[in-house]
Design goal:
Chain lengths: 357, 357
């Protein structure tokens, strides 16, 4: 073994949700089944590619202004990054430098732990209750910062804004990050609290309701003071992160509010209909307010069902880890995709019930 | 002061080269004065924007294959990132975890120091000699890793591959990164050494010779073993960094070898012609092998000249820092842009010479 091997960072290999290239029904990474606004396509087609020779605007001015306009905040309250992963990672790096542990739920987005370890931030997981709900009182203890998704992933459970506000109010000496990747499918966003709590950061993404996972855009909305700190950190490490195509397409997507709202409506309608179908098949699931359902079946093993679905060209997400080993996370696709899913599930459940295999 | 203020990361505010929005002659950030290959524009216009709803390919397969093909290496020897800043930062994070200091030149790319501090990597700067040349023997001492640009920035000096190989050979127990952002304007790349030295990483960018600073694409070429470590680190922290537009445009730019070579030829011709003009005006400069010239004038203060140029709509780069306080870094623009620059400089130098002010 060469000397340098000893000094290579040890990481836990992360396996992203599969991105199959062939024709499958892809309900495994919570993507939007509908394309982005037609205005995005138009903007790309009309883009002045000669300008690509120049560095992009490091302040992402046009996009922060469009987002500020959409959310009725000031442009100096908006920070954008390469997907919400980049934004969240930058928040960890900038704000979580206390010796006290940061708090997040035990069942939640897996990258919180990764970034905490990367930046050597002490952390302590707070256990969700038996129904996978956040226990807000757990977050009242002394800590170095708080982060949780709302709706939570992979549970899909949305906590009402009152509970979120209680946590923020109880933690005014630290930074509280509310990670709202799925909030557009759920209810009120904590963005409305930003004016009242200087310690609050709300993070959202273009990858879900805005149908642009392929463009890698995320953003944070917070007090101008916190946004300034985020920008200071970003400029000091890597100034030019958002490419010109993302900036241009991002602006167009934000401006098309009608398309955005219609898309959400379609997915929510499909989700509510799908809930009935899942129930009829004997599945149990947590109350979903996201674009996915976290479901279990009392009679069928989740791991086996996951494999059976995959063999039949239907990809869903399965972790098999503690407390959630009998759950599958199933993205809400188009009505047609869901019909195919239920067609398969009916046979799977029926076949077993009648003892045919 | 709120408690959380104490736990915010302290950073040295970095000021990127200005990106003026109005019509100026922009010779301050070493961008390419020519647009990218017309094939890039075509690819963007024809892009299937419906696919933007999906996450991009985390392995960046099409782009790593195109680069592998271009450089006659295997696809498993290529890693891509959001500009070479992202690639370099990922290399620091992955490979520089020794307790011994990493080495880099005292006058060099300013981000090396920033990443070392960010990741708490001990470092030691090795002083360039009086002519701003690398002293290769300085890098033979025990260290935790080595990084230097070739050509160096902002000096524009290219070290011949023999000297580069001497440094790599003397450091086979650590990782040696050769940062070749400007090598296409200079000479042989260290990529040809990758097959022989498993500890070597060569980093290049699409921002200079490939005219795509606005698309944020950089890459590393190394042994399959080192590329695997880089990918492990990347997947564990942020799997989807390259957006679909960057991946598609990157492939097209790489495939158009003829356009790439013509563009380099034009810039090198302008540079060589410009050297004569600078000389005639009494400037002294280091032997430039990049797309910029690092120049000083024995009779005129660099800071004053910088301001005078700016007032006249010509942006160049000036740091005013130790050892280089009398130098300006001037990007090679189009022939027309350079004519305007020299027109101004002739007046500036002449006016002073004849004592008219």
């Amino acid at each position: 073994m060469r000397e340098y091997e000893r000094n290579i960072r040890k990481v836990e290999p992360y396996v992203p949700g599969e991105q199959p290239q062939n024709k499958v029904i892809k309900l495994n990474t919570n993507e939007n089944p509908y394309p982005p606004s037609p205005k995005v396509a138009k903007a790309l087609a009309e883009m002045d590619t000669d300008r690509l020779r120049l560095y992009p605007d490091p302040a992402c001015t046009a996009l922060t202004e469009a987002l500020a306009d959409f959310y009725h905040v000031n442009p100096d309250q908006v920070f954008v990054g390469v997907g919400s992963d980049d934004v969240l990672s930058m928040c960890f790096l900038t704000f979580f430098n206390s010796k006290k542990p940061i708090f997040f739920p035990d069942i939640t987005y897996s990258f919180y732990k990764v970034w905490a370890e990367l930046y050597r931030i002490p952390y302590e997981c707070q256990k969700l209750d038996g129904d996978f709900r956040l226990v807000k009182e757990d977050y009242y203890k002394e800590n170095g910062g708080v982060i949780f998704p709302n709706p939570n992933a992979p549970t899909a459970i949305y906590e009402e804004l009152d509970a979120v506000e209680d946590i923020i109010r109880a933690n005014q000496d630290v930074i509280v990050i509310v990670d709202e990747a799925y909030v557009d499918f759920a209810g009120r966003s904590a963005i409305e609290l930003v004016g009242r709590y200087e310690n609050l950061i709300v993070v959202q993404t273009f990858s879900k309701a805005r149908s642009m996972a392929g463009m890698r855009i995320g953003y944070a909305i917070a007090s101008p003071r916190l946004i300034r700190y985020l920008n200071d950190a970003k400029y000091s490490f890597n100034s030019y992160t958002m490419n010109q195509a993302a900036l241009i397409c991002g602006v167009e997507a934000v401006k098309d509010r009608e398309y955005f709202e219609e898309g959400i409506h379609k997915i929510v309608m499909t989700r509510e209909w799908a809930k009935g179908r899942f129930e009829k098949l004997g599945f149990r699931f947590l109350e979903s307010n996201a674009n996915f359902i976290f479901a279990t079946h009392p009679e069928y093993d989740a791991g086996e069902l996951f494999e059976a679905l995959k063999e039949n060209g239907i990809y869903v997400r399965y972790w098999g880890s503690e407390r959630i080993e009998q759950y599958l996370r199933i993205t809400i696709g188009t009505r047609e995709e869901m019909e195919t899913l239920f067609g398969f599930l009916e046979k799977y459940v029926g076949r077993r019930k009648t003892g045919q295999c």
